[in-house]
Sequence to fold (252 residues):
Amino acid sequence: MDADLILVTEGLTKDFAGFTAVGGVDLKVRRGTIHALIGPNGAGKTTCFNLLTKFLSPTSGRILYNGRDITAMQPADVAQLGLVRSFQISAVFPHMTVLENVRIALQRLKRGPSFDFWRSRAVLDEYNARALSLIADVGLSDYVHWNAVELPYGRKRALEIATTLALEPEMLLLDEPTAGMGHEDIARIAELIKRVAANRTVLMVEHNLSVVADLSDTITVLTRGRVLAEGDYETVSNNPEVREAYMGVGHA
Fold:
């Protein structure tokens, strides 16, 4: 495996009761890049993403991460290797503060998946400095003592990214990070993704093509579960087959 590649799939396939949702996908993600996975509704993006993050098992094919076959591994084990997913629906503890949420994520990193949740305040306070640093990195310093449920939607997504970064991922997988956001929040999260990608690899499923164009080094276009095109934004956006695939769903 090319040392420049961090994630590779070979013939990745997922069948559901005779329906092929993902069929023979060969994907190569280069280290230190932002790679976008796009396609019209029903293209297989979510299924492919769930296969890559081990929330689904493939019918056939292989997934290699840093040259290691992770096809049969569990999500928690893959996360321990540095391949960490951030969810489309914000996954934080709503009635805990921003600081508490990030401390819990840091505790998980240090103590593993079987950590004791309800540890003493003295133990949790050990994580404050790193937690506050991560909170500042995602622009939430003014919200440290807010409960997550009180945060505006875009800020809640930033908190989710902070808790994901607490796990020190080498590769970050983002599932529609700007879904449901207004223009101001989209711009803020896009800038945040740029910052966190400075020293890691990012693979994202994203429906907002303006964000894709602004952030992505490489784009893979799926349709009907198969790779239709790949390249930079100019290449894929000028591909007649890509244009045809998006016709009628509001993109051009």
About this structure: Residues 13 and 60 are 5 Å apart (CA to CA).
